[in-house]
Specification:
Layout lengths: L3 H4 L10 H36 L16 E4 L7 H17 L3 E6 L12 H17 L2 E11 L8 E10 L7 E9 L5 H10 L17 H6 L6 E7 L5 E2 L7 H7 L2 E7 L7 H10 L4 E7 L8 H10 L4 E6 L6 H16 L6 E4 L3 H13 L3 E6 L8 H10 L6 H9 L3 E10 L3 E10 L1 E3 L3 E5 L7 E4 L3 E3 L2 E3 L1 E3 L3 E5 L13 E3 L7 E2 L1 E10 L4 E2 L3 E6 L2 E10 L4 E2 L4 E8 L4 E2 L5 E6 L2 E11 L19
Parallel strand pairs: 1-2, 5-8, 5-9, 9-10, 10-12, 11-12
Antiparallel strand pairs: 2-4, 3-4, 6-7, 6-8, 13-14, 13-22, 14-21, 15-20, 16-17, 16-22, 18-19, 18-21, 23-30, 24-29, 24-32, 25-28, 26-27, 26-31, 27-29, 31-32
């Protein structure tokens, strides 16, 4: 340290002169600067010492769960034969839990500590995992590698996230249903056309032409009916679609995972069709498409509210980003974030901007109900389209194998959503198998008719995603051929059930409801359109328990009466009702059987010819 007196910074002799006084001032400044510099150096030395003593705490994942399809492995380097067999059996269990998919986190301890592996150990571990996958008939895909840098004294260590997916066998691919919502002209059908056909749009709607079912839809460019499109992923995570002139049957054969898109109408005029699609087809997820240049407009808020009321997890796609400046896109995203964070929604928006975000979003989306991923893309330029494909490829199913097995153990119940007459085949019904297992040649009963009866029939052939299928399992959608069964006896909203079941039909039922919106008051005598699963019928309010009338936001137990014919309902089923601007949600709490109870003697035989 420099002595200030020796350096001449402050000299008693000079302080008596004018210049000396100036020097003295300079000396004071120098002294202050020196102290500041010394203070900074001291702090830096102390910080370094503290950093050495207090290293950043190591990052953690949640502890490994016994159930589910996620497995943590510290390393898989040169296992013995016995150990390898044990690891393969463990992988088989995880695949079963994930219905054909499993995620392995390599370099992670069972308690979730991210330890990481050296490059050589990581390479050996991935090689072992590949051998394990081959043994159980699966493929592996490296989703991402991340560096673990909390300890700077070590060499660079990495953890790897690997997707293991079974190679398809006997048509048992994983099938996820995604309902596509959004305002009219937001680009829903065009986006689906690009994803499923494998060709970008020309900016004038060429990609959507194959999706339309009616001439007026082609002429106006607006969807008015419900259509289904499929997008497959093989065991290596590669997209399988119509781009290579494949038929639907070929797509099903080569796919380990199938995304079935339910294209719904955006125009307010077709709202009842959109609600029917959401309630009857039981979508696993909903994709809300918002146009970047118009933002939240028209039915966007209404569709978002419907999905949330039915507790369908939702992710958002901002389309048409090629049409506007970056600032406009950012403004639309901010607008969406504001709406999602409002008290009614309580969502956590997550903007996806790179593949790593897409992987994180797919995993957190199903684990937490409040996460809402947001994608910004273009169907014309193809910008960020790959991020959406990565997300859909990794997206895990909501139900695990245990829940699936429990549903399959129950008696057969098939919901009738569509009815067709096909030349040379006869009557065909489309819908979803709610529970049990349905096979070709199985005998079921269908109803209720207007009189509340159930009629016998026999299932001919089964088609799933436009390809022949021998066995239909709970949760899967399909079309069933019924031969010469009279089509006029069928209607949407019916169920086909096992003859062993005693179906509960009702003309009146009670539901615990909350009135979301009503212009005036909701009272006895009000008529509303009720949606419960695949049932859609007008009902009259018979009474409100404990209240004379309801206003917006109020709750009550209400008794409804169907005005046309009895329906098959399940206790606890979600209910949604509407009439004009009136909207409400709830669940069925009690079923009141009709005066003439269902009797097995009411089942009428029909002479059916086999195919």
């Amino acid at each position: 340290m420099v002595d200030l007196a020796e350096s001449g910074a402050v000299s008693p002799g000079h302080s008596r002169h004018g210049q000396g006084s100036g020097s003295g001032n300079n000396g004071k400044k120098t002294s202050k600067k020196s102290r500041t510099r010394r203070g900074k150096r001291g702090r830096r030395r102390r910080n370094k010492k503290n950093n050495r003593n207090n290293k950043t705490p190591p990052p953690y994942l949640p502890p490994e769960a016994e159930e589910g399809n996620i497995e943590y492995k510290l390393k898989l380097v040169n296992p013995t034969q016995y150990r390898f067999e044990h690891l393969a059996t463990q992988l088989k269990w995880r695949l079963q839990e994930g219905r054909g998919e499993a995620v392995y986190q390599i370099g992670v301890e069972d308690n979730g500590l991210l330890v990481g592996l050296t490059e050589a150990d990581m390479k050996a571990s991935l090689k072992t995992l590949k051998r394990m996958a081959e043994k159980v008939g699966a493929d592996i895909t490296l989703l991402r590698e991340r560096e673990v840098d909390y300890d700077s004294d070590r060499n660079t260590r990495k953890i790897a996230e690997v997707l293991v997916r079974k190679v398809p066998d006997d048509q048992q691919f994983l099938d996820l249903r995604v309902a596509v919502l959004g305002n009219v002209d937001s680009g829903k059908s065009t986006l689906l056309g690009v994803l499923t056909q494998g060709e970008l749009d020309n900016g004038r709607g060429r990609a959507r032409l194959n999706l339309f079912r009616h001439l007026h839809e082609i002429q106006t460019g607006r969807t008015s009916s419900i259509s289904f499109e499929i997008l497959g992923f093989n065991s290596k995570g590669e997209v399988v679609n119509y781009s290579e002139s494949r038929t639907a049957e070929e797509i099903c054969e080569s796919s380990s995972k199938m995304i079935t898109f339910i294209d719904l109408a955006g125009h307010h005029k077709y709202l009842k069709t959109t609600i029917f699609g959401l309630t009857s087809y039981c979508p696993d997820f909903a994709m809300l498409v918002v146009s970047a240049n118009t933002g939240i407009a028209g039915t966007t808020r209404e569709h978002l509210g419907l999905a949330m009321a039915l507790k369908v997890p939702i992710f958002i796609v901002v389309s048409k980003v090629d049409l506007c400046f970056r600032g406009t896109v950012e403004r639309t995203v901010r607008q969406l974030e504001r709406v999602l964070k409002q008290p009614g929604c309580n969502k956590v928006p997550m903007v996806v901007s790179n593949p790593d975000d897409a992987v994180t979003a797919a995993q957190q989306f199903t684990q937490s109900a409040c996460i809402t991923p947001i994608f910004t893309l273009s169907s014309v330029s193809g910008e960020s389209l790959d991020l959406l494909k990565v997300f859909l490829n990794i997206l895990p199913p909501l139900s695990n194998s245990k829940e699936q097995e429990e549903l399959m153990q129950q008696l057969t119940e098939f919901q009738v959503d569509e009815i067709y007459s096909v030349p040379d085949v006869g009557t065909v019904v489309g819908g979803t198998l709610y529970s049990g297992v349905c096979r070709e040649g199985e005998r079921l009963v269908v109803g209720p008719t207007d009189e509340g009866r159930f009629l016998r029939l026999k299932v001919g052939s089964i088609q799933r995603n436009r390809s022949a299928c021998r066995v239909l399992r709970a949760g899967q959608a399909a079309t069933l051929a019924l031969g010469n069964f009279d089509r006029s006896l069928l209607r949407k909203g019916m169920v086909m059930v096992s003859p062993k079941m005693n179906p509960t039909i009702c003309c009146q039922f009670e539901a615990a409801i909350v009135l979301l919106f009503h212009a005036k008051t909701f009272r006895r005598g009000s008529q509303v359109t009720v949606h419960v699963g695949n049932v859609r019928q007008t009902a009259t309010v018979e009474c409100l328990h404990g209240k004379e009338e309801l206003r917006t936001g109020e709750r009550a137990v209400v008794r409804f009466r169907f005005i046309k014919h009895p329906e098959y309902l399940r206790l606890g089923a979600k209910l949604l009702f509407r009439e004009g601007v009136t909207k409400g949600i709830g669940h069925v709490t009690r079923l009141l059987p009709p005066s003439q109870n269902y009797d097995q003697n009411q089942i009428h035989d029909q002479n059916l010819q086999e195919h």
